[in-house]
Amino acid sequence: MEATLTGFLQGMLGSKWELVSPVWPLAWVLIKIVAILAPLMLGVAYLTLAERKVIGWMHVRLGPNRVGPYGLLQPIADGIKLLFKEVIAPSRASKGLYFVGAILSVVPALAAWAVIPFAEGWVLANIDAGVLFLLALSSISVYSIIIAGWASNSKYAFLGAMRSAAQMVSYEIAMGFALVCVLMISGSLNLTEIVVAQNKGLFAGMGLKFLSWNWLPLLPMFLVFLISGVAETNRSPFDVVEGESEIVAGHMVEYSGMTFAQFFIGEYTAMVLVSAMTSIFFLGGWLSPVALLPDGFVWFALKTSFILFLFLWARATFPRYRYDQIMRLGWKVFVPLCIAWVLVVGIWMLSPLNIWK
Amino acid sequence: MATIKQFFLIELLKGLTLTGRYLFSRKATIQYPDERTPQSNRFRGLHALRRYPSQEHFPSPPAPLPEGARGANSGYATNGMEERCIACKLCEAICPATAITIESAEREDGSRRTTRYDIDYNKCIYCGFCEEACPVDAIVETRVLEYHGETREELIYTKQMLHAVGDEHEAQIATDREQDANIGEP
Question: I want to staple A275 with a disulfide (CB 3.0 to 4.6 A). Which of A145, A215, A304, B114 is the partner?
Fold first, then answer.
């Protein structure tokens, strides 16, 4: 695609191509970034609507339906409202860090999309350490919450920040161990190769490709990753960080207008990211479930949407975990379970029953 | 057993099934300005002061009033119908929120009438005791529920305002009371 476009531009500009060619690789990357981020932002906006609709339906309500047909313009109305609201910084807040915290909530969630393969070859940066890159960036998102909570100079914000610091760190370990199992069986840290590795196996040979994806042999790890993903993004039922009934909005309590919206965009982008990661690591990314149908981006989008729906479903169903229960689940259940499963998978791979050769 | 149940997320899946079922159930929302819930004929909304439907209710109609006697609080509407209220002040006495204020005087024709009848909606709790206490069905609560005031002063309804409500909704008020009186009759 790049070659076609380059050729087209060369033809168009003729001799002037010499002037453009030095900046062309950069421009091409920028075009790709826009091509990823623009639909992503739209998706995030409509995820907020989907969330309100789905939760409304589960509450036997209708959900937003006043702005535009079926409420479809609601996210735009919300965006405009937040855009026009005043951005207030508390007088006792540490101004610089206060805004850095808001910005930092979006940056890692967006940057992580650089390594996500949307389909065969549809990836901005096909790096070999893709999994490490994702884990590193999801660690950075903890800083946004801690900085925001600290810089706000407010008790509630500080409590929220302290809670998140402990919670996100604990669940990152479980998440990392769950991924270790995936790495062991696919033998690569490159996300594209992880997806491709799920395309072979006994069931894939029979045409039932969806039974060869990692979710089945690694079912416990799939669940651990999914639940850790919910905890990692501070979503209900692990939303003690915001805990609106306990500490108002946690680290976001002092923010207003677009700075507040930044946290929301960050949270929802992280949600989409974790869903995309789950579909890549465990649900075969862009691979189609049966051999009859062609592979493609559609499957990746469908799988990601399904995981996102699970996020919303869980939010409408479960009450919030108590703080000590979160810690117990993370350290006493998930971490031992993951370590045990790493050993199980290791022995499985060395045994004659190894299915990943 | 409990551990196994917990480990396989049995309870959590049960919860998810329940909310999953409700996702497809019929929605209970009533989209208020467009749709409304049914209203009882005993609905207790805004108050109204009523008038008799015609002068026939008086065995001896009052003598015509001298010119200038039809003041703001005289109780006579432009259609000349007599007000029901006889200023007995039972409603004022029973009102648990002391929202009703009445002043009375003798009218030119010798009948006892209110010169002031205020209901303070900052205080009113819509209990309906005033309506029950009234011996002549003068003060009633209507089905009107959409009204507001932007200051406290606006929420103090005078006799004139209450009569205006009554004059506007008299047909509905009368049918509602008729229905209520006929409950249980074939």
Answer: A304
Tokens of A272: 């989409």
**Could you give the CA distance from residue B81 to residue B163 in angstroms, rounded to a whole number?**
11
- DSSP structure class, residue B154: G
A272 — pLDDT class (breaks 50, 70, 90): very high
CA distance B36 to chain A (A): 16
**pTM for the whole thing?**
0.79
Of the two residues A354 and A228, the one the predictor is more confident about is A228
Q: How many residues does chain B have?
A: 186
Q: How far apart are CA A190 and CA A183, in angstroms?
A: 9
Tokens of A67: 């702005």
According to DSSP, residue B153 is labeled G
For residues A60 and A54, the answer to whether their CB atoms sit within 8 Å is no
Question: Would you call A313 and B16 a contact, using CB atoms and an 8 Å cutoff?
Answer: yes
Q: Which residue, among B5, B28, B42, has the nearest Cα to B172 in the 3D structure?
A: B42
pLDDT band at B1 (very low <50, low <70, confident <90, very high): low
Decide which of A215 and B63 is more confident: A215
Say if residue A237 is preceded by a cis peptide, omega within 30 of 0. Answer: yes
Taking CB atoms and an 8 Å cutoff, what residues of chain A touch B9? 223
CB pair distance less than 8 Å for B20 and A313: yes
CA distances from A275 to A9, A214, B186 (A): 37, 15, 65
Which pLDDT tens digit goes with each residue over B50-107?
Answer: 988 765 555 444 445 445 444 444 444 445 678 888 889 999 999 999 999 999 888 8
pLDDT over 60 at B37, yes or no: yes
Probe site for chain B from A57, A65, A222 (most B CB atoms < 10 A): A57
> How far, in Å, are A222, A304, B102 from residue A307 at the CA level?
12, 5, 67
> Rounded to whole angstroms, how far apart are CA atoms B114 and B13?
68
Question: What is the rounded average pLDDT of the residues A285-304?
Answer: 84
| Cβ–Cβ gap B23/A54 under 8 Å | yes
DSSP per position, A66-102: SSSGGGTTHHHHHHHHHHHS-----TTS-HHHHHHHH
A337 touching B (Cβ < 8 Å)? no
Contact (CB<8Å) A60/B18: no
Cα distances from B14 to residues A51, A238, B7, B55, in angstroms, run 21, 19, 14, 70
Half-sphere exposure of B12 (CA within 13 A, CB side): 17
Q: How far is A236 from chain B (nearest CA, A)?
A: 14
